[in-house]
């Protein structure tokens, strides 16, 4: 008919963009859906970025630190942070620099006081040879290459403590210690939570009764007094490595109760499902039913619980070491560093000793943001 437009048929085999996206969504695996949803969570991605930086520090602490954790600079005791600059009264410089440091004797106390000499520049260089170190204290890799340093003199980005030790270097080593302790502690708590919670929720009966009473007993005691009592029982003459191991075990063996209860509740709701009954009729063992059929049904929630548990482990170690009942020198951790700042002199004269607090706060925020992002993305069908 004249004036009538007949719409053209869509060519055969052509799929619209929306149809492709729907096909991609409904054919994706569970982990792909979780990742796509997690990427849209800004705080979760920020938390993942923060923790990525911490992982780099954990792995490459010796390389990132310009000095050893116990290296002394007697000419710069309780020295303030040296600020990296690109310009001053003498003009602009493409290469970053810090001012030189000199020491002068106080006419009243006769003590050597460090002062900043603004007339001398010390240029910062990267990938410089300096103090030799063993990577992870092993003889496999022995080198003297550090990320940065100065051509002459010293550089202390976070200042020094009362013995002249570089705070920045000690924070790098402390980050490794505190994070590895948290990882090991969470792993122990994770394994115990899976075993105790799985047996309690699936088997029930007397095992469930005694497991729940044990959890109630542990949770009825306040955390800090319980940690302090167990940590104070460690002999003072023990070497630092043994104290580190025992503190890790204590934190792990006391941190499994929350995960165990969550796993128990999940298993109680799943043990009467059809696929579980079918596995029982097929002759599968209890361990196989729990490990191969029931736990994978809520793996994402277990991962979220693990991530959320890290801040509690880190804060527990920091608090114990801060009050002198956790790790002790010469072990370097965030709590040990903060222990040296719990006096009036540090608050009034050396506030830079509190720099480790910033690393503790950002670590807790990173794990919290990541845990919240994973919790939101754990069920991508909602």
Description:
The structure is a single chain. The protein has 382 residues and is α+β, with helices and mostly antiparallel strands. The protein folds into two domains: 82-155, no CATH class; 170-377, MetI-like fold, CATH 1.10.3720. Helices cover 55% and strands 13% of the residues. It contains 15 helices and four strands. Strands 1-2-3-4 form a four-stranded antiparallel sheet. α3 (42-59) crosses α5 (167-203), α5 (167-203) packs parallel to α8 (240-253) and α5 (167-203) runs parallel beside α9. The longest helix is centred in the middle third of the chain and has 37 residues, at 167-203.
In short:
By secondary structure, the chain is α+β, with helices and mostly antiparallel strands.
Terminal Cα separation, in Å?
A: 50 Å
Biggest pleated-sheet summary: 4 strands, antiparallel
Shape: globular
**Whole-number tally of structural domains:** 2
CATH class of the largest domain: Mainly Alpha
What is the CATH architecture annotation of the largest domain?
Orthogonal Bundle
Low-confidence stretches: 4-10
CATH superfamily of the largest domain: MetI-like
Radius of gyration: 28 Å
- CATH fold-level label of the largest domain: MetI-like fold
Helix share of residues? 40-55%
Main β-sheet, spatial strand arrangement: 1-2-3-4
* Structural class by secondary-structure content: alpha+beta
Number of distinct helices: 15
Taken as a percent bin, the fraction of beta residues is 5-15%
- SSE order: HHHHEEEEHHHHHHHHHHH
Give the mean pLDDT: 84
Beta strands, count: 4
């Amino acid at each position: 008919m004249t004036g009538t437009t007949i719409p053209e048929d869509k060519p055969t085999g052509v799929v619209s963009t929306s149809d492709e996206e729907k096909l991609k969504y409904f054919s994706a695996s569970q982990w792909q859906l979780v990742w796509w949803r997690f990427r849209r969570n800004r705080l979760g991605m920020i938390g993942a970025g923060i923790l990525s930086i911490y992982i780099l520090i954990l792995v490459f602490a010796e390389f990132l630190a310009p000095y050893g954790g116990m290296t002394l600079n007697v000419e710069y005791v309780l020295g303030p942070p040296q600020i990296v600059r690109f310009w001053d009264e003498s003009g602009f410089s493409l290469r970053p620099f810090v001012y030189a440091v000199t020491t002068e004797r106080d006419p009243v106390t006769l003590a050597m006081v460090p002062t900043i000499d603004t007339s001398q520049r010390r240029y910062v260089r990267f990938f410089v040879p300096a103090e030799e170190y063993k990577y992870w204290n092993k003889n496999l890799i022995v080198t003297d290459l550090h990320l940065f340093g100065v051509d002459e003199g010293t550089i202390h980005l976070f200042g020094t403590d009362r013995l002249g030790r570089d705070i920045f270097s000690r924070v790098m080593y402390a980050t490794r210690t505190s994070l590895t302790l948290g990882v090991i502690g969470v792993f122990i708590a994770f394994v115990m939570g899976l075993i105790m919670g799985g047996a309690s929720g699936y088997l029930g009966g007397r095992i469930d009764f005694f497991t729940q009473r044990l959890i109630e007993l542990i949770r009825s005691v306040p955390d800090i007094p319980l940690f302090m009592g167990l940590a104070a029982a460690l002999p003072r003459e023990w070497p630092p490595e043994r104290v580190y191991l025992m503190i890790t075990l204590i934190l792990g063996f006391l941190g499994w109760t929350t995960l165990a209860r969550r796993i128990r509740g999940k298993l109680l709701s799943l043990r009467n499902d059809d696929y579980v009954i079918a596995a029982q009729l097929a002759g599968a063992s209890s361990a196989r039913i729990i490990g191969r059929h029931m736990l994978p049904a809520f793996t994402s929630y277990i991962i979220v619980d693990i991530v959320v548990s890290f801040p509690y482990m880190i804060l527990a170690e920091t608090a114990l070491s801060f009050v002198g009942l956790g790790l002790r020198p010469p072990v370097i951790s965030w709590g040990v560093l903060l222990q040296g700042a719990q006096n009036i002199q540090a608050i009034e004269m050396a506030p830079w000793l509190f720099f480790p607090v910033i690393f503790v706060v950002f670590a807790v925020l990173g794990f919290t943001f990541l845990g919240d992002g994973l919790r939101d993305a754990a069920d991508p069908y909602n």
